[in-house]
């Protein structure tokens, strides 16, 4: 490959991955074309993208960028997976595909600028997604207000129940009082 072609590829990679602060590196070995296409299709359905990139060109493209630790650590045949809401979703999808593709494994990741090595990235699929965490926070914030509203409404409900019982009792006693008069 000529130097000019390499520079064009590096510029393209820099424009694609230069501003990213989250990505996952996978190894995809011994997979046939049909399975690879199905895997890429499932990634695309969740707005994710897998690209096999030459390691040396990726290192040059993300030099002095957030993905630099990831590029420095990769060796051998790798594919870079980006997109989705977060690398947690990417890791969950890859874990889902591991039984179907024997040569698929998580190698490393960058999660919001923090590098995760091979042993750390295995726990990434077990983490809750950003949406799950936001839902938990919202439920936690809402819980005291819901309990307060329940406490306020329960007292009013008890009073309403007592008044209803008193009204029914008075209505029952009125016909018997009118019959005796």
Describe the structure.
- The structure is a single chain.
- Helix 1 (3-17) crosses helix 3 (55-61).
- This protein is an alpha+beta fold and 181 residues long.
- The longest helix has 51 residues, at 130-180.
- Strand 4 and strand 5 (114-116) form a beta hairpin.
- A 5-stranded antiparallel β-sheet has the order 2-3-1-4-5.
- The chain has helices at residues 3-17, 33-45, 55-61, 68-73, 87-97, 118-121, 130-180; strands at residues 23-28, 48-52, 79-83, 104-111, 114-116.
Summarize the entry for a quick read.
With 181 residues, this protein is of the alpha+beta class.
Based on the model shown, name its key terms.
181 residues, five-stranded antiparallel beta sheet
Write the layout of secondary structure elements.
Elements: H1 3-17, E1 23-28, H2 33-45, E2 48-52, H3 55-61, H4 68-73, E3 79-83, H5 87-97, E4 104-111, E5 114-116, H6 118-121, H7 130-180
Helix pairs in contact: 1-3
The radius of gyration over CA amounts to 30 Å
Give the distance, in angstroms, between the N- and C-terminal Cα atoms.
Answer: 114 Å
Pick out the low-confidence regions: none
Largest sheet: 5 strands, antiparallel
